[in-house]
């Protein structure tokens, strides 16, 4: 047997990073995002398809509580969707909106290019950073408080979100270092070395340099915001390891990380529970953001 990464051969490594292989009907989960998001868009007032950049995918939707006004200064919850860097989209990112607007917050669903159309992870990361900067500069026009921006990321969106909170905002954008005030990252990947060595790299085409600059664990910021890092009980051992190791690294360096394990849930189900305001993930997220 030839080990490719740690004690994993190629087949075992590929299986660990193939979330669709962990469930009987992956299409059911992918379809759920669109259905649940469509229902949320019917129920929650929102302003859709707002451009934060010049590309067609560089759009976002802002959901607001009933009666919200442009002059308000409400907390803002930003969601970065997952999908293995290649699936899902803005239209499927509305599903948690009501949980947060019911707490008086604005909810922002981010759209961005996915692979292979994006061309590289670097471009995807650049779009998440550009959207975050746009929100800090513009969200007060929609009733949000730019000093209370909070981020949720799931799966590959947790990876992208982690890189966003590792951004040197003063150097790159001339904006505050704590542009994002806190984050919740669920079932993410924070070290891309095993991804580069797995079947996923047929699409991502990472070389060693791209792996390093796009691995949050190797690009920790000068100051770290509070981060809650979680996973589902039935996430793979590698996804759990990634969560535990990133949480430990953040806690050692900044002292403001915590973890949450979501009992009885697989990789997809974990984030679905944000539609239930009483779920463990919703309660933890609301408490973490202070909303």
Commentary on this structure:
- Helices cover 38% and strands 18% of the residues.
- The protein is of the alpha/beta class.
- It has a single domain (10-74, 82-255), classed as Alpha/Beta hydrolase fold, catalytic domain (Rossmann fold).
- The protein has an 8-stranded mixed beta sheet, with helices on both faces.
- Helix 4 (121-138) crosses helix 5.
- Counted up, domains total 1
CA radius of gyration is 18 Å
The CATH superfamily appears as Alpha/Beta hydrolase fold, catalytic domain
Shape: globular
Mean pLDDT: 97
Largest sheet: 8 strands, mixed
So how many helices? 12
Q: Helix share of residues?
A: 25-40%
SS-derived structural category? alpha/beta
Query: How far apart lie the N and C ends?
Result: 51 Å
Report the β-strand fraction as a percent range: 15-25%
């Amino acid at each position: 047997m030839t080990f490719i990464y740690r004690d994993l051969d190629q087949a075992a490594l590929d299986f660990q990073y193939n979330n669709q292989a962990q469930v009987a009907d992956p299409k059911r989960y992918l379809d759920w995002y669109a259905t649940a998001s469509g229902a949320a868009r019917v129920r929650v007032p929102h302003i859709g398809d707002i451009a934060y950049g010049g590309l067609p995918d560089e759009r976002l939707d802002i959901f607001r509580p009933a009666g919200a006004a442009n002059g308000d200064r409400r907390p803002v919850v930003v969601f970065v969707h997952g999908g293995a860097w290649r699936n899902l989209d803005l239209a499927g990112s509305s599903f948690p909106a009501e949980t947060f607007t019911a707490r008086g917050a604005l909810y922002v669903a981010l759209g961005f290019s996915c692979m292979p159309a994006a061309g590289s992870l670097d471009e995807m990361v650049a779009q998440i950073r550009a959207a975050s900067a746009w929100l800090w500069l513009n969200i007060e026009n929609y009733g949000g408080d730019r000093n209370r921006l909070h981020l949720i990321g799931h799966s590959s969106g947790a990876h992208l979100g982690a890189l966003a909170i590792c951004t040197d905002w003063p150097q790159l954008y001339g904006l505050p270092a704590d542009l994002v005030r806190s984050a919740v990252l669920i079932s993410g990947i924070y070290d891309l070395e095993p991804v580069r060595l797995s079947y996923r790299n047929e699409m991502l085409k990472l070389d060693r340099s791209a792996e390093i600059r796009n691995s949050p664990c190797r690009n920790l910021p000068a100051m770290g915001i509070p981060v809650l890092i979680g996973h589902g009980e039935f996430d793979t051992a590698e996804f759990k390891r990634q969560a535990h190791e990133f949480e430990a690294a953040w806690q050692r360096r900044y002292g403001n990380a915590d973890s949450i394990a979501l009992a009885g849930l697989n990789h997809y189900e974990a984030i679905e529970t944000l539609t239930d305001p009483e779920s463990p993930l919703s309660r933890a997220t609301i408490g973490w953001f202070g909303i």
